[in-house]
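Input record, target 12 of the design panel.
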């Protein structure tokens, strides 16, 4: 499983596969080598949000020896950890070897390859192959892809060093990139898309192997995993109009994947509105309209293994 998800993961593949985007969570036949450049671009767009989150973590965790990025995808956040903690060794863990190849190449470009490693395997089992416990273990939008989230957090907690921190990026707010009233179609399109995505997300969770229904109270789940001092903080990505070409390309991709993922859950009028928004020949499409923006909020929950 790869998750560098950066946009709202209920809509995207970002996560840097984890971290980060717009998907319906049908991961079975995804060609991650083909997806990698898109995941990397999305995670790079969300870098200002990640940098703020890591800056906050750096005040909570001082001089870690080992930082593990669980569900690293192409390694955008992994390499940000290398910059944030220049004395730490970084290990990127992901189920996709093509994405880990991208992570290693990125680490080399950033000049941190000498303290950057990768581990291929599915979460959370792959964490058992770490050579030594982590001082900071980061899971960005990867835990919700595991059937038993409580058991997954407990497995992560077991791989922490005494006094080590588990940081989980889950929840927040859906990404927004259009005004409520776009001048055609019924106002409130993105709110209705949110409903469709939430329903799809619930179906995805229910269909996971060993799925366990749980209240998504992340601090309580972290406490149940035996961790103490739970804290939560939300970080904003605010890219106002007028947007750069890179940001506009992200919006086009996000809306395209929404169209592919939840079209059957939208009514005919909303599908027609989305199709018009995606028509590059239409001046009112997201390819051209001047009011496109990106606004997103991701929440990080942390807790500490008792000394």
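The sequence produced for target 12 reads:
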């Amino acid at each position: 499983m790869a998750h560098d998800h950066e946009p709202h993961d209920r809509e995207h593949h970002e996560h840097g596969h984890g971290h980060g985007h717009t998907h319906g969570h049908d991961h079975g036949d995804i060609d991650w080598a083909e997806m990698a450049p898109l995941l990397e671009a999305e995670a790079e767009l969300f870098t200002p949000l990640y940098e703020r989150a890591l800056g906050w973590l750096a005040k909570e965790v001082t001089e870690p020896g080992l930082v593990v990025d669980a569900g690293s995808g192409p390694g955008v956040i992994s390499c940000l950890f290398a910059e944030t903690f220049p004395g730490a060794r970084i290990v990127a863990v992901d189920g996709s070897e093509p994405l880990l190849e991208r992570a290693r190449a990125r680490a080399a470009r950033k000049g941190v390859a000498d303290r950057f490693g990768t581990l291929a395997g599915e979460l959370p089992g792959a964490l058992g192959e770490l050579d030594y416990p982590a001082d900071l273990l980061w899971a960005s939008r990867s835990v919700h892809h595991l059937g038993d989230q409580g058991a997954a957090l407990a497995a992560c907690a077991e791989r922490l060093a005494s006094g080590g921190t588990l940081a989980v990026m889950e929840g927040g707010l859906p990404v927004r990139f259009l005004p409520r009233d776009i001048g055609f179609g019924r106002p409130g399109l993105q709110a209705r898309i949110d409903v469709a995505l939430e329903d799809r997300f619930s179906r995805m969770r229910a269909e996971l192997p060993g799925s366990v229904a749980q209240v998504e109270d992340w601090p309580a789940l972290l406490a149940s995993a035996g961790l103490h001092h739970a804290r939560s903080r939300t970080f904003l990505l605010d890219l106002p109009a007028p947007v750069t070409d890179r940001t506009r390309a992200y919006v086009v991709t996000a809306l395209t994947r929404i169209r592919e993922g939840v079209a059957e859950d939208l009514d005919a009028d909303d599908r027609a509105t989305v199709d018009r928004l995606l028509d590059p020949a239409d001046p009112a499409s997201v390819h051209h309209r001047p009011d496109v923006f990106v606004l997103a909020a991701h929440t990080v929950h942390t807790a500490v293994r008792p000394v």
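The two ends are 31 Å apart (CA to CA).
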